[in-house]
Amino acid sequence: MTFKLLSQEEFIQHTSASSQRSFMQTVEMAELLSKRGFSTQYVGYTDPQGQVVVSAVLYSMPMTGGLHMEINCGPVSTDAQYPASFLSSFASPMLKRRCPRAHHQAPTRLIRPLTAMASPHLMKRSSLSSN
After folding, report:
1. H or E segment at 32?
2. For 92-124, what is each residue's pLDDT tens digit?
3. pTM to 2 decimals?
4. I need a labelling partner for 38 at 20 to 30 A (CA). Which of 3, 32, 57, 63 fits?
5. At what angle do helices 83-96 and 106-117 cross, to 10 degrees?
6. What are phi and psi of 3, to 5 degrees?
7. In sequence order, what are the residues at sequence separation of 6 or more whose Cβ sits closer than 8 angstroms to the Cβ of residue 98?
8. For residue 84, which of 111, 59, 57, 105 has the smallest C-alpha distance?
9. In this structure, are residues 17 and 44 in contact, taking their beta carbons and an 8 Å threshold?
10. Cβ proximity of 32 and 51 under 8 Å
């Protein structure tokens, strides 16, 4: 299982195979964010066979104190067992670094909410299109 950067084509191929996704996790949203000054990348997580099982639009912008990076309303998953692993592998390099204040370790507080967001009961396309 590997965390990797995806091409736009790989991202489109994966997200079109998914039954769940938000409009925030589309190529069109990545293009809009780019026009608004954000740097955008497509990231993914592969299973042991090398197939992309989780993907996301990652956008970032330099801010005072560092780089603000965000995956909003994502990731997109085609296998419910992988989103938590994706989020953990994405955040693990951040966990090794501490904030300037020794008593404050901000990234660890992010893992629980992000992992909770990866639940398979999130937005399903079928429930959105039936309205």
Report:
1. helix 27-35
2. 655 555 444 444 444 434 444 444 444 444 444
3. 0.70
4. 3
5. 170
6. -90, 130
7. 104, 105
8. 111
9. no
10. no
